[in-house]
Amino acid sequence: MKEKKTKKPWPTKAAMEQVYKMNLWGSNETDFYSGIGSHDPKITHPYITALTSFLTSFKIPLTVCDLGCGDFNVGKQLVKYTKKYIATDIVTDLITHNKKTFTKENLEFLCLDIAIDALPPADCAILRQVLQHLSNTEVQNIVNKLSAYKYVILTEHIPQGDFTPNKDIISGQGIRLKKQSGLNLLASPFNFKVKGEKQLASIDLNNGKGVIITTLYTVF
Fold first, then answer.
1. Are 43 and 128 in contact (CB under 8 A)?
2. How does pLDDT run across 73-84, given as a tens digit for each residue?
3. Residue 209: how many CB atoms within 10 A of its CB?
4. Which of 51, 98, 139, 179 is the least crowded, having the fewest Cβ atoms under 10 Å away?
5. What is the pTM of this model?
6. What separation in angstroms does the CA of 34 have from each of 3, 27, 203?
């Protein structure tokens, strides 16, 4: 029997591999570095505090799927509050590195292209500054799968004040901020259907650099 052909990957995989290989998000003398958004305490501490509060509010810990875990500098601080933490990323070498660096009984790393591959089952999906790097086509492919999760926690870097949401971009290291745009999954063309939404954190970067918003969506 012939092996089933896998779907052709988006150019995003090559683009993100280049980001890490060429240190396009900066470097802190480690093999993999996901940028200041994953390391600046002014950005990470409010996020970790908000996520910790959410995760510890349940009597029975949740299974969490981190869709785009990066160098895991943030995710590593949330694992202990979950029943199981499944961390995914599109960059193969990054996942290999994370597997060797971070080991917990309830932690699993998977190399996935979340725009193409089936997503792991879980109670809650986390997407922290991931979708902002992707084209509308890829975002839509991912949004189509998010209805499987009861909770979705989305973090996006958006402009301050009013802006036109969901302008399309080419997937890569850049985001929609340069187009005075940002993602709003509830707006067209995505129209993500949710039962409720709640802002968990807001970090004003000042000097016209936008704001980083973390929103909890209750899907069902």
1. no
2. 999 999 999 999
3. 12
4. 179
5. 0.91
6. 35, 8, 18
Among candidate residues 152, 148, 145, the one with its CA nearest the CA of residue 127: 152
Tens of pLDDT along 87-100?
999 999 999 999 99
| One-letter amino acid of 129 | Q
DSSP the chain: -PPPPPPPPPTHHHHHHHHHHTTTT--SSSS----GGGT-HHHHHHHHHHHHHHHTT-SSPPEEEEES-TT-TTGGGTGGGSSEEEEEES-HHHHHHHHHH---TTEEEEE--TTTSPPPP-SEEEEES-GGGS-HHHHHHHHHHHTTSSEEEEEEEE-SS---TT----SSS--GGGGT----TTSTTT----SEEEEEEEEE--TT--EEEEEEEE--
Give DSSP secondary structure letters for 6-45: PPPPPTHHHHHHHHHHTTTT--SSSS----GGGT-HHHHH
The two structure tokens encoding residue 128: 């922290």
Phi, psi (deg, nearest 5) at residue 71: -80, 0
